[in-house]
Amino acid sequence: MRFMMMVIPKGNGSAAPHAVSSAEAVAKMMEYNKTLQKAGILLALDGLFPPSTGARISLVDGKATVTDGPFLEAKEVIGGYWIIQVRSREEAIEWAKRAPMSNNEVIEVRQIHEMPDFPEDVQKAAEGFEHQNAVNR
Amino acid sequence: MSDVTRTIEAVWKIESTRLIAALARVTRDIGIAEELAQDALVVALERWPEEGIPENPAAWLMTAAKRRAIDSLRRGQMLVQQHEEIARELQVQQQRLGEAMDQALDQVIDDDVLRLIFTACHPVLAVEGRVALTLRLIGGLTTAEIARAFLVPEKTMGQRIFRAKKTLSEAHVPFETPRGDELRRRLKSVLSVVYLIFNEGHTATSGEEWMRAALCDEALRLGRMLVQLLPGESEIHALLALMELNASRTAARRGSNGQAVLLPDQDRSLWDGAQIQRGMTALEDAQRLGGGARPYALQAAIAACHMSARTAEETDWDRIVLLYDALMQTTPSPIVALNRAVAVGMAQGPAAGLDALDAIATPSADSSLAGYHLLHSVRGDLLMKMGRFPEAREEIRRAIALTQNLREQELLTERLKQMEKAATST
Q1: Which range marks the domain in which residue A48 is found?
Q2: Of B12, B224, B311, which to mutate for an interface test with A (greatest number of A Cβ within 10 Å)?
């Protein structure tokens, strides 16, 4: 089972465009990442720029509307993620509990859909999608 | 199972390896180490549902294991305790043990985990014992789970694990990571155990679907762990690459009715692109470390050829033939030769393929391949492509008679039907 652990940092919605974490916080995070790696469960991870550099595209009355960051009304904005492969939901939660977090920070754990989880008609509809694009030739 | 029990199980799967590894450093016996860890788990199962999961479960479990160790030391010496001298000695021993375990707790180092892996895969054990111990001690699987994965009764698997631990203990196998040439040699055993676990999940056609998937995932996890623990060993990267690339086709290997779908007929859109990418990266790492010509790397490179072709027709068969040539140099075997003949047939036409096949085994000859169903099915395919239908049919029929595997029988029977259709339409 694959899970995505999403970090929702406190105050991320209004953080400055180039706000970076302290060296100490980064060192702690690296140590955690290393633990995930050594456990053999880490598949991918990334950190995102603060939302102030992002944009939100929403469909309003059939029209795409663009809103530039920061998103002051949004309380929860993703700051980064890990993708891990574990054997149960409980295990994903236990790993999330071990992540270095500051007060009021949130980590959301969500299972990633695998193709066999979908009903057959959905699998049919998804047929032909070129996963292969991701592969170097 | 209650929520807390499931959480405890998850904590166990996360912590047990490092716990057992640290305890084994102190006790020098992985059987005793595992018992102590198990005892700690039992205490956790009693207490955590009431007290809640502790802040640092690893430390908690280690403390509980330490208490058990001191208890058993005390119990073992109870009878002779009337002698003051022995009592004093016992006290010293207890203190030493306590200190050693406190230290072990402070510095659970990666080397312990590596030592544990090498010990579980020690050549003094039968291969099935190595596999069972590895899944149990490093995989954190229960005996029942391992038994189910290998389709043996739980009792049989329990005895297998018990015997393996006893063998290690009796042979006084040191709890250590080998060095130099010895490391290379022993690493071979470790990698073959990991690959065996993977293949049990990947190619076995009986057993529960989810349990087999679990074996593949566990082998991949072990591969990723080993890459971290011994990053300079190219063969580990290569094996990981081979497993990632083979596992990436899992979703495409079964048709909607559960029938097997062979590589050329697979819907390539179902291949897992992210996993292919991980496999390619691991293969590059192996090659960068100078191990590109070693067996696992060559096999991974062959898989990579398949995985990077957009369609079966676009497959670079010339390159695959070259890779099989190299594999024949390093690890010649009838199976490799057979696969090479298939590749030659694809690259240079069925007649060349048949020549390559006849060079390794004429069907009537008494060779190790003669009773092997794949030899006949490959021959049948090549003959069919050459339009020699009666001979082709004969070969496929022989292949059907030789395989015990139901899915393969289905597949071959289907091929026979197609062949008959093709024969009548010409």
Answers
A1: 2-134
A2: B224
Q: Which of A46, A54, A60, A51 is nearest to A15 (CA)?
A: A51
This complex has an ipTM of: 0.82
Q: With a CB-CB cutoff of 8 Å, which residues 35-94 of chain A face chain B?
A: 37-44, 85, 87-88, 90-91, 93-94
Contact status, residue A103 vs residue B245, Cβ threshold 8 Å: no
Question: Tens digit of pLDDT for each residue in B187-227?
Answer: 999 999 999 999 988 876 555 677 788 899 999 999 999 99
Condensed to tens digits (0 to 9), the pLDDT of residues B315-330 reads 999 999 999 999 999 9
Helix H or strand E segment including B16: helix B3-27
The total of structural domains in chain A comes to 1
Instruction: Indicate the fold that domain B328-426 takes in CATH.
Output: 1.25.40
Helix (H, G, I), strand (E, B) or coil at B179: coil
**Nearest C-alpha neighbor of B307 from the set B336, B344, B346, B280:** B280
pTM of the model: 0.87
Q: What is the DSSP string of B105-130?
A: HHT--HHHHHHHHHHHT-TTS-HHHH
The answer, for B279 touching chain A at a CB cutoff of 8 Å, is no
Instruction: Report the CATH number that the domain containing residue A25 is assigned in CATH.
Output: 3.30.70.1060
Give the mutation candidate from A35, A81, A91 for the B interface (greatest B CB count, under 10 A). A91
